[in-house]
Amino acid sequence: MNKTLKKIGFIGCGKMAGAIIAGIKSSDCAKNLQLKGSEVNFEIAELAQNKLGIEVLTDNRLLVMDSDIVFIATKPNLVRNILEEIKDEITPDKLVVSIAAGVSINTIESILPNVRAIRVMPNTPALVKEGMFAAAKNEYAAEEDLEFVMDLLSSIGRVIEVEESQIDIVTAISGSGPAFFYKVIEDMARAGEKLGLEYDKSLLLATQTALGSAKMVLNRGETPVQTLIDNVATKGGCTFVGIQTMLEEKSDKLFFDVIEKTTQKAQELGK
Q: Beta 116-121 vs 131-137: how paired, if at all?
């Protein structure tokens, strides 16, 4: 796609779409983009327009007609009806991007044959510009379509390309993952509380430590994660004892089971 003005429409202007819109608006490429949204309920559309600072229509078809790229950002159970509603307006020059969980490219193509489509799995930290996105394109979408979408999303986090067959694993790791990390942080904080430290202080310790540790992993370069563990867990020291406890309790199996079962549930929902 070239640098001329691109019109991007969001069907659904909820939290995730709002995060993406806010990120795009604050990015360097914003000047080359026109953003609009749609919400069929007039009051919700008006609220979204005031909050997001973009025009929000109440007609999905009109939005699609005036868009080069259409983001499907509604609840998954509404996607089929919306695709049926807009299918006559989806011309070959339009790109459809779905961020609806569990909605496969096959589902999209069953209603919109030969459509240029990209499926994206987002996560909620996009709301604080620390999102993790995975994107998969179908055979009709061009590489430049994918590059354009990935560049857009990189304004509010990190983006990787995956095969669509891997999306359910992505769902388990990064889509559902925030809740798993919240649970770990909460468990650590409650452990501190039980041992005699005030909960608020324990929670801050666990949260900031998680943040700093994550940044060190991202900035590790070629250093294996195991080396980062070994750097802290000096043999015979406090951390070493804690790591040994995790090994004895088989924390690796616990997290494998968590990711495996979540992946399986994502596969079921996709059917």
A: antiparallel
Round the CA-based radius of gyration of the chain to a whole number and report it.
21
The pLDDT tens digits along the chain (271 residues) read 445 789 999 999 999 999 999 989 988 888 889 999 999 999 999 999 999 999 999 999 999 999 999 999 999 999 999 999 999 999 999 999 999 988 999 999 999 999 999 999 999 999 899 999 999 999 999 999 999 999 999 989 999 999 999 999 999 999 999 999 999 999 999 999 999 999 999 999 999 999 999 999 999 998 899 999 999 998 989 999 999 999 999 999 999 999 999 999 988 887 7
Topology of domain 177-270, per CATH? ProC C-terminal domain-like fold (1.10.3730)
| CA 65 from centroid of its chain's CA atoms | 26
Helix ranges restricted to H, 28-176: 42-52, 60-65, 79-86, 105-111, 143-153, 167-170
Residue ranges of the chain assigned to CATH 1.10.3730.10: 177-270
Identify the bridge partners of residue 78 per DSSP, sorted by sequence position: none
CATH number for the domain formed by residue range(s) 6-167 = 3.40.50.720
Measure the CA–CA gap between 46 and 5, rounded to whole angstroms.
25
Contact (Cβ atoms closer than 8 angstroms) between residue 233 and residue 239: yes
Whose tokens are 């067959």? That residue is 165
Which stretch of DSSP H or E encloses residue 92? none
CA distance 131 to 83: 26
Task: Report the C-alpha gap between 73 and 141 in whole angstroms.
Answer: 19
